[in-house]
Design goal:
The protein is of the alpha+beta class and 427 residues long. It is built from 16 helices and 8 strands.
């Protein structure tokens, strides 16, 4: 029985909404976008900046290098980059076109401009509020829930935009992620007209493989990718996780190459795609087989992360690495049964990895998660599996996914708060 037409169209739309380009780690870029928009509304270079951010934003911006800033990192640097050199019309590519002169201006702006940063005590896990002031005027922009979702805009205290206001009418509603299931994802991968997904997947392949090569061939971060290859060789199982890790090596260290994200994350976009691309090359899979395998890996990752949320104490590399294992299983001829077991086996292995912000060690967590995805598939091929009632594993892949989402979306909230306290030295 074929997929219902509404499910088919929803899945196509999900891929188009999720697989979009981003320049740099999405949390500092979201902050840069918010700051760039605030300056645009103010209509002048701010003389003073006040930033409030949720704990998860603070956690994910603290240690990652902001691209196009000559090595700067942290919340003030991200805001200054958006204010001085940002184009708010480009959203997640807001600082992609910063010039050499603007890089120097960003440093000078940071030196002379008061930028106050405070924790946002209420609101969403992904929440940013930037207020800017100049010549007796003010502007305030708030982003909430997703990296580019502007909740409201104020100028001189007057609300000029609110997301529930009539001005929002006509904007497309996001496709319903609640329709995702492993059964239908596999069926969709089998049935999808390649032309419906080719553009977004071609861009993902091009961008994400390019940054993976950059990370492998040059000195970035902790060089997890190149260390894996030097230590263990170039077997496909090693190369698949090494290339994914290398992409993160480069991205977390300020590499000025774009990536195509998944579930709001560039690291997850790299992790869910690059291992599948590497396996497709080694297996000499056709272009069509690669597309269909990437459909499986991308939508599986979105399915898991939808129940967790974009930011939490649950490491997003886990859902992406396990989903990559599902895409690899598809390349080997696996379908619903094989993919379901691959996912359950891998989630049972690495779901305990927590997120302590965006930084160099993300690459190592990516490597571990991809390894778990591959192991999950080979466990099934060798007649092995984790059974229901083994820890968080329940009977049926969807029930196990729900268990993981319970942990990542709710139960790890206190863990998240403790991680943030440790990172911000709040005893």
């Amino acid at each position: 029985m074929r997929l219902a037409e509404n499910v088919y169209r929803t899945y196509v739309q999900i891929l188009k909404e999720e697989l979009v380009p981003a320049f740099g780690c999405t949390e500092p870029i979201s902050l840069a976008y918010c700051a760039a928009k605030a300056r645009e509304i103010l209509g002048a270079l701010p003389e003073r900046v006040e930033i409030q951010a949720s704990g998860n934003i603070i956690k994910n911006v603290k240690s990652v290098i902001v691209p196009n800033t000559d090595g700067l990192k942290g919340i003030p640097a991200a805001a200054a980059a958006g204010i001085v050199g940002g184009d708010p019309n480009k959203k997640l590519e807001v600082i992609a076109q910063v010039t050499a002169q603007q890089k120097q201006e960003i440093r000078e702006y940071l030196e002379r401009t008061p930028i106050e940063v405070k924790a946002l005590s209420d609101g969403d896990k992904l929440d940013i509020l930037v207020a800017v002031y100049a010549a007796g005027h003010s502007a305030e922009v708030r982003i909430s829930r997703t990296h580019c979702n502007i909740a409201y805009i104020r100028r001189d205290g007057e609300m000029i935009y609110h997301e529930e206001a009539p001005v929002c009418e006509g904007e497309p509603q996001k496709a319903d992620r609640g329709l995702l299931s492993i059964c239908d994802i596999v069926r969709f991968a089998e049935e999808v007209e390649v032309a419906d997904v080719k553009e977004v997947l071609d861009r993902q392949i091009s961008y994400n493989y390019s940054i993976a090569l950059e990370g492998l061939e040059h000195d970035w971060g902790a060089n997890i990718g190149s260390t894996l290859v030097k230590t263990y060789g170039d077997d496909v199982k090693i190369m698949s996780k090494a290339m994914a890790a290398a992409g993160s090596d480069a991205r977390m260290s300020g590499c000025e190459l774009p990536v195509v994200i998944n579930s709001g994350s560039g690291n997850q976009g790299i992790t869910v795609s690059v291992p599948v691309i590497v396996y497709a090359e080694r297996l000499r899979s056709s272009e069509e087989e690669l597309y269909r395998a990437l459909v499986v890996s991308n939508l599986t990752a979105v399915h898991i992360k939808h129940g967790i949320g974009p930011l939490s104490a649950f490491c997003g590399a886990v859902s992406a690495g396990c989903a990559a294992g599902c895409g690899i299983a598809y390349l080997f001829g696996g379908r619903e049964e094989e993919i379901s077991h691959t996912l359950v086996n891998s989630l049972a292995t690495v779901s305990g990895i927590f997120c302590d912000g965006a930084k160099a060690s993300c690459a190592a967590k990516i490597a571990s998660s991809v390894e778990a995805g591959i192991l999950g598939y080979y466990m099934y091929k060798n007649g092995q599996q984790f059974y229901a009632e083994d820890g968080i594993v329940s009977k049926g892949v969807e029930n196990t996914i729900r268990n993981v989402c319970r942990l990542g979306g709710n139960a790890m909230n206190e863990t998240d708060e403790e991680i943030i306290r440790i990172m911000t030295h709040c005893d």
